[in-house]
Design a protein that fits this description.
With 301 residues, the chain is α+β, with helices and mostly antiparallel strands. The chain folds into two domains: 184 residues, Jelly Rolls; 104 residues, Homeodomain-like (Arc Repressor Mutant, subunit A), CATH 1.10.10.60. It has eleven helices and ten strands. The protein has a seven-stranded antiparallel beta sheet with strand order 1-2-3-9-4-7-10. α3 runs antiparallel to α4 and α5 crosses α7. The longest helix has 23 residues.
Length: 301
């Protein structure tokens, strides 16, 4: 292996190399590690084997890559741009490039940490779109075995380093980001939100061939219009209208493709009185006209 690698029962770390092809993939790993820091232990527990830029984690450093640090046990402190925040077990610390930061465990408890560093153009685009904001670096998700499982998969991929391992590791980083995002969103929901949203989805599926009073669903389910809209948007990332239209467009794809319906027939079956409006909406959502979609997905041959 052409990286610095050290292992013991409580700590290991690896600092990685990457090729032009890895960089072109959009996301690649720069470093990984795990440490179980006992109470009253020095932090970081080892300096040897870490590049100099990574060493002053407890006193302050600036990195050129992203880092996700999951605190599985214990508690500590995170400091960034003059602000100090407590860190509890079950928190993900999201480190962004070019932002000075420091973090360390409470000497009374120590902590267990898992981390992965990464960079790439695809990650930059996610951040630019607001996926995670530098002003919110602490993400409380609780103790989640699914997070530990993804970290273990990344660690194993890096340890073995089969051909194209960086591409697989990068895909696992995206999986980790998606899982954190999902858990963060679920943790922010009010009690009963999941049941409310799933019942609303069921009603939309039931009425996919017609219309439904989307504004009235909240009252029908005993939540009220404002509460329902807020809960649905927060949980799914879409408004009720956007979700219902997506259902209709996905069903339209099936009608036009495998079931061989005409554009006019598909429009009317899905409750659109105006097939021209249906066609414009279909093109806006799919990038193709209904007739072009039907031709491309003709299953008669």
């Amino acid at each position: 292996m052409d990286n610095a690698l050290s292992m013991s029962p409580v700590i290991f770390s690896a600092y990685l190399t990457w090729s032009d092809d890895d960089e072109a993939s959009g996301v690649f790993c720069t470093d990984i590690g795990h440490a179980d820091v006992a109470p009253s232990s020095p932090y970081p527990p080892t300096i040897e084997g870490h590049p100099s830029v990574y060493q002053p984690v407890a006193t302050g450093r600036v990195l050129s890559d992203y880092q996700l640090v999951y605190i599985a046990r214990g508690k500590g402190v995170f400091i960034s741009e003059g602000s100090e925040s407590p860190v509890e077990a079950g928190t993900v610390i999201a480190i962004f490039p070019d932002i000075r930061h420091a973090y360390y465990p409470d000497p009374a408890t120590g902590w267990e940490e898992y981390w992965v560093g990464f960079k790439g153009a695809s990650v930059d685009r996610l951040v630019t779109s607001g996926f995670h904001l530098p002003g919110h670096p602490l993400i409380k998700i609780g103790f989640e075995p699914s997070i530990l499982s993804i970290f273990e998969d990344i660690f194993q991929t890096v340890k073995v380093q089969e051909p194209c391992y960086q591409i697989r590791a990068g895909a696992l980083v995206f999986l980790l980001l998606a899982e954190i995002h999902k858990l963060e969103r679920k943790s922010q929901q009010q009690s009963g939100t999941e049941q409310l949203v799933e019942r609303a989805k069921f009603l939309m599926h039931e009425n996919i061939y017609g219309t439904i009073d989307l504004e009235g669903i909240g009252e029908r389910l005993g939540a009220g219009k404002a509460r329902f809209y807020e809960a649905f948007k927060s949980y799914t990332g879409m408004t009720p209208y956007q979700y219902f239209i997506h259902l209709k467009i996905n069903r339209a794809k099936e009608l036009l493709g495998s079931e061989g319906a005409s554009v006019k027939e598909a429009a009317f079956r899905l409750g659109f009185d105006d097939p021209y409006y249906f066609s414009r909406l279909f093109r806006r959502k799919t990038g193709l006209s209904p007739s072009a979609w039907a031709y491309r997905n003709d299953c008669s041959d």
